[in-house]
Amino acid sequence: MSAVDWGTVIAAGITGVVGVAGIGGTLLSARMTSKSDAENLRMSIAAEDKRAQLAEKRRIYANCLARLTDGFYAATIVKTYTGKNTDAEYKTAVQECNRARVEATHTLHEVRLIGPGHVGNLASNAVRSLLRLLEGDSTEYSKVQAELASAMRADLGEPPE
Predict the structure, then answer these.
(1) CB atoms within 10 A of CB 93
(2) pLDDT digits (tens, 9 = 90+) for 30-61
(3) Can you tell me whether residue 138 is helix, strand or coil?
(4) Which of 21, 99, 148, 155 has the greatest number of beta carbons closer than 10 A?
(5) Distance separating alpha carbons of residues 159 and 103, to the nearest angstrom
(6) CA-CA distance, 50 to 136, in Å (whole number)?
């Protein structure tokens, strides 16, 4: 029988344990990296979703303000033709004013769906004021429209004008 070289056996055992520990560490590291990558991906997707929602809200708000402005100018043109009911230009202006009012009302519904309650309420007030514009002066409309634009900017995180 030959003598056992215990130094070699112990060294081989230690090497084996270190090797197993190295493999385990590598697997653990890979798993941690995978979790980290997955979390980074989730955060990236959430950030992109938030950016897209903000861009859509910005588009809807801008469209609403543009339609309100169209309605304001259409009503102003109708007011210049008041008393000329037989004039073809007056009838065309009234048709354009009615079309602009309908479009403003449509955008109001988009704002009410996507914006917070106070912005939706201000948009409703602006449309109501627009619908009454032919009956009175534009002071009320201008005030409500300015409040609406300010609330929209705040909701988008933009600084006040």
Answers:
(1) 21
(2) 666 666 666 777 777 777 888 889 999 999 99
(3) coil
(4) 148
(5) 28
(6) 42
Find all residues with CB under 8 Å of 114, minimum gap 6, and list them: 56, 57, 60
Query: What tokens does 22 get?
Result: 């190295």
For residues 53 and 109, the answer to whether their CB atoms sit within 8 Å is: no
How far apart, in Å, are the Cα atoms of 69 and each of 23, 38, 102, 104, 140? 68, 47, 13, 9, 14
Helix or strand (DSSP H, E) at 23: helix 6-80
- What are the CA-CA distances from residue 8 to residues 5, 11, 69, 123 (Å)? 6, 5, 90, 85
In one-letter notation, the amino acid at residue 146 is A
